[in-house]
Amino acid sequence: MSSSSFNFTLLMPLLVGCLMVASASHFNQDFDITWGDGRGKIVNNGEVLTLSLDKASGSGFQSKNEYLFGKIDMQLKLVPGNSAGTVTAYYLSSKGSTWDEIDFEFLGNLSGDPYILHTNVFSQGKGNREQQFYLWFDPTADFHTYSILWNPQRIIFSVDGRPIREFKNMESIGVPFPKNQPMRIYSSLWNADDWATRGGLVKTDWTQAPFTASYRNFNADACVWSNGASSCKSNTPSSASANNAWFSQEMDSTSQQRLQWVQKNYMIYNYCTDAKRFPQGLPPECNMS
Ligand SMILES: *[C@@H]1O[C@H](CO)[C@@H](O)[C@H](O)[C@H]1NC(C)=O
Fold this sequence. Notes:
Blueprint: H1 3-24, H2 27-30, E1 31-35, E2 41-43, E3 48-53, E4 59-63, E5 66-77, E6 86-93, E7 101-107, E8 116-122, E9 131-133, E10 144-151, E11 154-159, E12 162-168, E13 184-191, E14 211-226, E15 229-230, H3 237-241, H4 253-266, E16 267-270
Antiparallel strand pairs: 1-4, 2-3, 3-14, 4-13, 5-10, 5-14, 6-7, 6-13, 7-8, 8-9, 9-16, 10-11, 11-12, 14-15
The structure holds 2-acetamido-2-deoxy-beta-D-glucopyranose (NAG).
Protein backbone atom coordinates (compact mmCIF):
# COMPACT_ATOMS: atom_id res chain seq x y z
CA MET A 1 0.00 0.00 0.00
CA SER A 2 1.38 3.40 -0.93
CA SER A 3 1.74 5.97 1.79
CA SER A 4 -0.51 8.46 0.00
CA SER A 5 -3.54 6.17 -0.17
CA PHE A 6 -3.00 5.24 3.49
CA ASN A 7 -3.15 8.92 4.51
CA PHE A 8 -6.22 9.47 2.42
CA THR A 9 -8.06 6.63 4.16
CA LEU A 10 -7.31 8.16 7.54
CA LEU A 11 -8.38 11.60 6.45
CA MET A 12 -11.70 10.71 4.82
CA PRO A 13 -13.77 10.15 7.97
CA LEU A 14 -12.46 13.42 9.40
CA LEU A 15 -13.54 15.37 6.32
CA VAL A 16 -16.98 13.79 6.27
CA GLY A 17 -17.37 14.44 9.99
CA CYS A 18 -16.57 18.12 9.60
CA LEU A 19 -19.03 18.59 6.74
CA MET A 20 -21.85 17.02 8.71
CA VAL A 21 -21.26 19.17 11.79
CA ALA A 22 -21.12 22.32 9.70
CA SER A 23 -24.39 21.62 7.92
CA ALA A 24 -26.16 20.61 11.12
CA SER A 25 -26.30 24.17 12.40
CA HIS A 26 -26.38 26.33 9.32
CA PHE A 27 -28.81 29.14 9.96
CA ASN A 28 -28.77 30.26 6.32
CA GLN A 29 -30.12 26.87 5.33
CA ASP A 30 -32.96 26.63 7.86
CA PHE A 31 -34.06 30.21 8.64
CA ASP A 32 -34.95 33.56 7.10
CA ILE A 33 -34.54 36.84 8.90
CA THR A 34 -37.96 38.34 8.35
CA TRP A 35 -37.91 41.80 9.88
CA GLY A 36 -35.77 44.38 11.66
CA ASP A 37 -33.99 46.06 8.74
CA GLY A 38 -30.53 44.55 9.37
CA ARG A 39 -30.93 44.11 13.14
CA GLY A 40 -31.09 40.34 12.70
CA LYS A 41 -27.83 38.79 11.48
CA ILE A 42 -26.42 35.40 10.62
CA VAL A 43 -22.72 35.34 11.57
CA ASN A 44 -19.76 32.94 12.15
CA ASN A 45 -20.24 31.09 8.84
CA GLY A 46 -23.91 30.49 9.56
CA GLU A 47 -23.34 29.01 13.01
CA VAL A 48 -24.76 31.88 15.04
CA LEU A 49 -27.78 34.09 14.59
CA THR A 50 -28.20 37.34 16.52
CA LEU A 51 -31.28 39.51 16.96
CA SER A 52 -31.12 43.04 18.23
CA LEU A 53 -33.45 45.73 19.43
CA ASP A 54 -33.03 49.48 19.61
CA LYS A 55 -35.45 52.33 20.03
CA ALA A 56 -36.47 52.27 16.36
CA SER A 57 -37.12 48.52 15.95
CA GLY A 58 -36.72 44.97 17.12
CA SER A 59 -36.04 42.04 14.78
CA GLY A 60 -37.10 38.50 14.06
CA PHE A 61 -36.62 35.33 12.06
CA GLN A 62 -38.61 32.28 11.01
CA SER A 63 -37.88 28.77 9.83
CA LYS A 64 -38.01 27.99 6.14
CA ASN A 65 -39.71 24.70 6.96
CA GLU A 66 -43.06 23.95 8.48
CA TYR A 67 -43.20 21.01 10.86
CA LEU A 68 -45.94 18.69 12.02
CA PHE A 69 -44.47 17.09 15.16
CA GLY A 70 -40.85 17.05 16.14
CA LYS A 71 -38.19 17.41 18.75
CA ILE A 72 -36.75 20.85 18.24
CA ASP A 73 -33.74 22.17 20.11
CA MET A 74 -32.20 25.62 20.04
CA GLN A 75 -29.51 27.19 22.17
CA LEU A 76 -30.16 30.78 23.25
CA LYS A 77 -28.09 33.33 25.09
CA LEU A 78 -30.35 36.12 26.24
CA VAL A 79 -29.88 39.89 26.37
CA PRO A 80 -27.35 40.54 29.18
CA GLY A 81 -27.18 43.37 31.69
CA ASN A 82 -30.19 45.62 32.01
CA SER A 83 -32.69 43.85 29.76
CA ALA A 84 -35.78 45.17 31.54
CA GLY A 85 -38.68 45.80 29.17
CA THR A 86 -37.34 43.49 26.46
CA VAL A 87 -38.96 40.23 25.43
CA THR A 88 -37.29 37.46 23.47
CA ALA A 89 -39.94 35.15 22.05
CA TYR A 90 -39.13 31.74 20.64
CA TYR A 91 -42.11 29.68 19.52
CA LEU A 92 -43.84 27.40 17.06
CA SER A 93 -46.99 28.65 15.39
CA SER A 94 -49.40 27.76 12.61
CA LYS A 95 -51.41 30.29 10.64
CA GLY A 96 -55.02 31.46 10.52
CA SER A 97 -57.65 32.41 13.08
CA THR A 98 -57.76 28.99 14.73
CA TRP A 99 -54.03 28.63 14.99
CA ASP A 100 -51.94 26.40 17.23
CA GLU A 101 -48.92 27.73 19.08
CA ILE A 102 -46.27 26.50 21.52
CA ASP A 103 -44.46 29.37 23.25
CA PHE A 104 -41.31 30.18 25.11
CA GLU A 105 -40.98 33.88 26.00
CA PHE A 106 -38.15 35.35 28.02
CA LEU A 107 -39.00 38.50 29.93
CA GLY A 108 -35.94 40.63 30.67
CA ASN A 109 -35.08 42.35 33.92
CA LEU A 110 -32.73 44.79 35.63
CA SER A 111 -29.12 43.59 36.00
CA GLY A 112 -28.98 40.86 38.61
CA ASP A 113 -32.76 40.41 38.79
CA PRO A 114 -34.22 37.21 37.38
CA TYR A 115 -35.60 36.73 33.90
CA ILE A 116 -39.02 35.11 33.71
CA LEU A 117 -39.49 32.20 31.33
CA HIS A 118 -43.10 32.38 30.21
CA THR A 119 -44.74 29.40 28.45
CA ASN A 120 -48.11 28.94 26.77
CA VAL A 121 -49.95 26.47 24.54
CA PHE A 122 -52.62 27.56 22.07
CA SER A 123 -54.87 25.08 20.39
CA GLN A 124 -57.31 26.17 17.70
CA GLY A 125 -56.80 29.84 18.56
CA LYS A 126 -57.29 29.48 22.29
CA GLY A 127 -54.44 30.01 24.74
CA ASN A 128 -54.77 31.25 28.33
CA ARG A 129 -52.57 28.39 29.51
CA GLU A 130 -49.63 30.30 30.94
CA GLN A 131 -47.01 28.84 33.19
CA GLN A 132 -44.05 30.97 34.27
CA PHE A 133 -40.71 30.04 35.76
CA TYR A 134 -37.51 31.47 37.09
CA LEU A 135 -34.40 29.69 35.84
CA TRP A 136 -31.80 27.92 37.98
CA PHE A 137 -28.95 29.66 36.13
CA ASP A 138 -28.21 33.04 34.59
CA PRO A 139 -29.57 32.69 31.01
CA THR A 140 -27.45 35.64 29.82
CA ALA A 141 -24.05 34.25 30.85
CA ASP A 142 -24.00 31.31 28.45
CA PHE A 143 -25.97 29.47 25.82
CA HIS A 144 -28.59 27.05 27.16
CA THR A 145 -30.76 24.59 25.27
CA TYR A 146 -34.50 25.18 25.03
CA SER A 147 -36.44 22.27 23.56
CA ILE A 148 -39.93 21.49 22.44
CA LEU A 149 -40.94 17.88 22.08
CA TRP A 150 -44.21 17.75 20.17
CA ASN A 151 -45.78 14.42 19.32
CA PRO A 152 -49.42 13.37 18.93
CA GLN A 153 -49.75 12.58 22.65
CA ARG A 154 -47.93 15.39 24.41
CA ILE A 155 -45.92 18.57 24.32
CA ILE A 156 -42.90 18.70 26.62
CA PHE A 157 -40.97 21.93 27.22
CA SER A 158 -37.39 21.32 28.40
CA VAL A 159 -34.46 23.46 29.46
CA ASP A 160 -31.01 21.86 29.17
CA GLY A 161 -32.75 18.50 28.84
CA ARG A 162 -34.77 19.02 32.02
CA PRO A 163 -38.54 18.94 31.47
CA ILE A 164 -40.28 22.01 32.89
CA ARG A 165 -43.80 21.53 31.55
CA GLU A 166 -45.91 18.82 29.97
CA PHE A 167 -49.15 19.47 28.08
CA LYS A 168 -50.89 16.20 27.37
CA ASN A 169 -53.32 15.37 24.62
CA MET A 170 -56.65 15.49 26.44
CA GLU A 171 -58.96 15.35 23.44
CA SER A 172 -60.74 12.54 25.25
CA ILE A 173 -62.19 15.16 27.64
CA GLY A 174 -62.82 17.70 24.89
CA VAL A 175 -59.62 19.78 25.04
CA PRO A 176 -58.33 20.47 21.52
CA PHE A 177 -54.71 19.39 20.98
CA PRO A 178 -52.38 20.78 18.30
CA LYS A 179 -52.02 17.92 15.86
CA ASN A 180 -53.41 18.88 12.46
CA GLN A 181 -51.78 22.19 11.62
CA PRO A 182 -48.13 22.39 10.61
CA MET A 183 -46.14 25.04 12.46
CA ARG A 184 -43.15 27.18 11.69
CA ILE A 185 -40.48 28.22 14.20
CA TYR A 186 -40.45 31.95 14.93
CA SER A 187 -38.33 34.15 17.12
CA SER A 188 -38.25 37.85 17.81
CA LEU A 189 -36.77 40.39 20.15
CA TRP A 190 -38.96 43.37 20.84
CA ASN A 191 -39.88 46.09 23.32
CA ALA A 192 -42.72 45.14 25.66
CA ASP A 193 -42.07 47.52 28.52
CA ASP A 194 -45.79 48.11 28.94
CA TRP A 195 -46.10 44.67 30.58
CA ALA A 196 -42.92 42.58 30.60
CA THR A 197 -40.93 43.54 33.68
CA ARG A 198 -42.70 43.63 37.02
CA GLY A 199 -45.93 43.94 35.12
CA GLY A 200 -44.77 47.05 33.20
CA LEU A 201 -43.40 48.95 36.20
CA VAL A 202 -39.79 48.85 34.95
CA LYS A 203 -39.26 50.48 31.55
CA THR A 204 -36.66 49.82 28.88
CA ASP A 205 -33.51 51.88 29.39
CA TRP A 206 -32.70 52.93 25.83
CA THR A 207 -29.26 54.20 26.85
CA GLN A 208 -28.36 50.47 27.02
CA ALA A 209 -29.41 49.78 23.40
CA PRO A 210 -28.82 47.90 21.21
CA PHE A 211 -30.01 44.82 23.10
CA THR A 212 -28.83 41.55 21.59
CA ALA A 213 -29.81 37.87 21.94
CA SER A 214 -27.91 35.03 20.25
CA TYR A 215 -28.86 31.62 18.88
CA ARG A 216 -26.85 28.56 17.90
CA ASN A 217 -26.96 24.75 17.51
CA PHE A 218 -30.44 24.48 16.09
CA ASN A 219 -31.51 20.87 15.69
CA ALA A 220 -34.83 19.50 14.50
CA ASP A 221 -35.67 15.81 14.58
CA ALA A 222 -38.97 16.53 13.00
CA CYS A 223 -41.55 15.75 10.38
CA VAL A 224 -41.26 18.43 7.72
CA TRP A 225 -44.52 19.40 6.08
CA SER A 226 -44.49 20.39 2.44
CA ASN A 227 -47.08 20.37 -0.32
CA GLY A 228 -49.62 18.81 2.00
CA ALA A 229 -47.47 15.84 2.98
CA SER A 230 -45.24 14.86 5.86
CA SER A 231 -41.62 13.79 5.48
CA CYS A 232 -42.38 11.11 8.07
CA LYS A 233 -43.59 8.13 6.11
CA SER A 234 -46.63 7.67 8.23
CA ASN A 235 -48.06 9.34 11.30
CA THR A 236 -48.70 6.04 12.99
CA PRO A 237 -46.45 5.54 16.00
CA SER A 238 -45.33 2.06 15.00
CA SER A 239 -43.71 3.08 11.72
CA ALA A 240 -42.44 6.46 12.88
CA SER A 241 -40.95 5.20 16.11
CA ALA A 242 -38.47 2.91 14.40
CA ASN A 243 -36.35 5.94 13.56
CA ASN A 244 -37.89 8.54 15.81
CA ALA A 245 -38.05 7.70 19.51
CA TRP A 246 -39.40 11.18 20.14
CA PHE A 247 -42.59 10.36 18.23
CA SER A 248 -43.85 8.15 21.03
CA GLN A 249 -41.76 9.57 23.89
CA GLU A 250 -43.43 9.76 27.28
CA MET A 251 -42.35 11.06 30.66
CA ASP A 252 -40.69 8.24 32.59
CA SER A 253 -40.50 8.39 36.39
CA THR A 254 -37.10 10.10 36.38
CA SER A 255 -38.43 12.81 34.06
CA GLN A 256 -41.50 13.20 36.28
CA GLN A 257 -39.28 13.75 39.29
CA ARG A 258 -37.12 16.29 37.47
CA LEU A 259 -40.23 18.10 36.28
CA GLN A 260 -41.59 18.21 39.81
CA TRP A 261 -38.32 19.66 41.09
CA VAL A 262 -38.68 22.57 38.63
CA GLN A 263 -42.36 23.05 39.33
CA LYS A 264 -41.82 23.05 43.07
CA ASN A 265 -38.78 25.32 43.16
CA TYR A 266 -38.98 27.56 40.10
CA MET A 267 -42.58 27.85 38.94
CA ILE A 268 -43.94 31.30 39.78
CA TYR A 269 -47.28 31.21 37.95
CA ASN A 270 -49.61 28.42 36.89
CA TYR A 271 -52.96 29.18 35.26
CA CYS A 272 -54.26 25.92 36.71
CA THR A 273 -54.00 27.29 40.24
CA ASP A 274 -55.41 30.74 39.39
CA ALA A 275 -59.01 30.15 40.47
CA LYS A 276 -59.72 33.91 40.59
CA ARG A 277 -59.06 34.18 36.89
CA PHE A 278 -61.56 31.44 36.02
CA PRO A 279 -64.69 32.22 38.05
CA GLN A 280 -66.66 29.68 35.99
CA GLY A 281 -64.17 26.98 37.00
CA LEU A 282 -60.67 26.01 35.96
CA PRO A 283 -60.12 24.81 32.37
CA PRO A 284 -60.91 21.09 32.10
CA GLU A 285 -57.29 20.00 31.49
CA CYS A 286 -56.38 21.42 34.92
CA ASN A 287 -58.40 18.79 36.71
CA MET A 288 -56.54 15.98 34.98
CA SER A 289 -52.99 16.35 36.32
C1 LIG B 1 -37.61 40.98 37.95
O1 LIG B 1 -37.14 41.12 39.25
C2 LIG B 1 -38.17 41.33 40.21
C3 LIG B 1 -37.51 41.58 41.56
O2 LIG B 1 -36.71 40.49 41.93
C4 LIG B 1 -39.09 40.12 40.24
O3 LIG B 1 -40.17 40.35 41.12
C5 LIG B 1 -39.62 39.83 38.83
O4 LIG B 1 -40.36 38.62 38.82
C6 LIG B 1 -38.45 39.72 37.86
N1 LIG B 1 -38.78 39.38 36.49
C7 LIG B 1 -39.60 40.09 35.69
C8 LIG B 1 -39.62 39.71 34.28
O5 LIG B 1 -40.31 41.01 36.07
